[in-house]
Design a protein that fits this description.
It is a single chain. The protein is 32% helix and 25% strand. The longest helix has 16 residues. By secondary structure, the chain is an alpha/beta fold. The strands form five sheets. Strands 6-7-8-3-9-10 form a six-stranded mixed beta sheet, sandwiched between helices. It contains 17 helices and 22 strands.
């Protein structure tokens, strides 16, 4: 490090008269990894859209200087040609194309990282796949390059995005929440790659996971309300100080007060196995009970079967399910979300934008779509009744919004997640299945989600929560079911339970 590679100088960006950025200035040193942190709405994404050419020169005030030149990007391709590459939080992949095709989408033979205008030329498939396999092997990512992206997990898609960015020979690489769907083992693998590249590349690392920031980054730039409020050296600060800068107050994840449940379980799973369409086992012999007003955490490394377990339970995982499921003492065979909901079991999926929300529809519509029949008389929707219900459920779940008629895509990630929760809570479930309920939201919004979950449990709902973040699992759960390669490795009571013990169990060492 030493010389400055990037400078933001009094950058301001307004939307409809409201400033998302109001005079942000900072420098990035060549070869360093600079963390960019802040709550949702702090201005992080706006800054990176300016840097990557999404917001072109002339649409903002101030200057951005990269390698001694004032940027005048008209589009993202200009940024890429200048040596700036970005991995966006919302993945930019074509699901119907293979991994290899996505890696080299804007290139022609010989597929060496440079955009080409010869895309209509003949594809050299053998070279394409060889280069893709070499890239994945070099990064240590175990992903079949001929597989279609639609068949990959969210975590695997994230790794494809990472691989594509590395391939493009960038000088500056921006990573926007690159580990939001990765297990701890995959995070470490990615960090190994980033550490190898430090010095050769300069990184801006955007993350809500402060433990990652401290493990990887040299300095931390904190944004709040569109302003830079602190530039901290990682070695000279701590998590509490960073959080104080981010939210303007101390904030700490409240620990779960564990109380062991008694009586009959509300949900019992006996020897559950699941086989995919090719006959391969995704889950084998899993058994557990869920008690009234209990939070059961599901932990494990990527590929352990965490999300598959929830999807198998409600009958949306492709393939064949075996074993027994008892709900309130009665044997059930759910074959889809509708059947599970009819019994009182609601499911909040991992990918809210793909599987949970209608992004172009209103906030109110998204919150009430699951119970519209309540407001329908003789085929007509009673809008006043729907409005009152939406206001009540949004108030209960602390959703912050200006107008319920606005499209939900204008909300922050945290408030989108609250609306998705509201949609499911509106059905008055007895059991709530949560798959990565705080994925991609900031630390302040996470604590609000945790509080909502605790309030729901106090109101009588039982919860199963899947999370790749062990502090989250330990902060919420009464017990933790640990999975490894589709099998149960332990059902642990959350009393003096440590991350190390859970990880050892997940890795097969305990």
């Amino acid at each position: 490090m030493g010389s400055t590679i990037l400078s933001f100088k009094n950058v301001r960006k307004a939307f409809g008269g409201v400033y998302a950025l109001s005079g942000v200035s900072f420098d990035v040193e060549k070869g360093e990894c600079l963390a960019l942190v802040g709550e949702n709405g702090a201005g992080k994404s706006t800054l990176m859209k300016i840097l990557s050419g999404v917001w072109p020169a002339g649409s903002y005030e101030g200057e951005v200087v990269f390698e001694g030149r004032v940027l005048s990007h008209k589009n993202p391709m200009d940024a890429r040609e200048a040596g700036i590459s970005i991995i966006h939080q919302e993945l930019c992949l074509f699901p119907q194309l293979s991994v290899a095709e996505n890696l080299f989408l804007s290139e022609a033979y010989p597929y060496e990282g440079k955009a080409s205008s010869r895309l209509a030329s003949r594809v050299r498939w053998r070279t394409l796949y060889e280069h893709a396999e070499a890239l994945m092997n070099d990064l240590g990512f175990d992903i079949p390059v001929r597989a279609l992206v639609k068949d990959l997990s969210v975590a695997e898609r994230q790794l494809v995005e990472v691989a594509r960015a590395f391939h493009q020979n960038a000088t500056l690489l921006v990573l926007d929440e690159p580990t939001s769907a990765l297990s701890q083992a995959e995070v470490e693998r990615l960090f190994d790659v980033l550490r190898r590249m430090k010095g050769k590349l300069t990184f801006i690392y955007i993350s809500h996971k402060l433990e990652e920031v401290f493990a990887l980054c040299d300095r931390i730039l904190v944004l709040r309300d569109g302003q830079s409020v602190g530039m901290l050296k990682t070695a000279e600060t701590n998590t509490e100080e960073v959080i104080r800068h981010m939210v303007g107050r101390p904030l700490k994840l409240a620990q779960k007060e564990v109380s062991l449940k008694e009586g009959a379980p509300i949900l019992s799973v006996k020897n559950l196995s699941h086989y995919d369409l090719a006959g391969s086992a995704k889950l084998e012999g899993i058994s557990f009970d869920l008690y009234p007003r209990e939070i059961l955490g599901i932990a494990g490394l990527m590929g352990s079967g965490r999300s598959e377990l929830l999807r198998s339970l409600i009958g949306v995982l492709p393939g064949t399910r075996q074993g027994e499921i008892f709900f309130q003492g009665k044997a059930v065979e759910w074959n889809g979300i509708r059947e599970a909901l009819a019994d009182g079991v609601a499911f909040v999926p991992e990918d809210r934008k793909k599987d949970g929300l209608f992004l172009d529809h209103s906030i109110e519509f998204n919150g009430t779509i699951s119970v519209l029949n309540k407001f329908t008389r003789a085929g007509l929707l009673k809008l006043e009744d729907e409005d009152r219900f939406a206001e009540g459920i949004f108030e209960q779940l602390h959703v912050k919004y200006a107008d319920g008629a606005d499209p939900i895509k204008v909300l922050s990630g945290g408030n989108q997640q609250k609306v998705l929760l509201a949609k499911m809570v509106a059905t008055q479930p007895k059991v709530l299945l949560l798959d990565e309920p705080t994925r991609g939201i900031d630390i302040g919004a996470k604590e609000e989600i945790y509080q909502i979950i605790r309030e729901l449990v106090r109101d009588g709902i039982s919860v199963i929560v899947v999370s790749s973040e062990l502090p989250e699992v330990l902060g919420l759960s009464d017990r933790v079911l640990v999975l490894r390669e589709g099998e149960s490795r332990g059902l642990l009571i959350n009393q003096n339970l440590t991350q190390e013990k859970v990880m050892a169990c997940a890795a097969g060492e305990a």
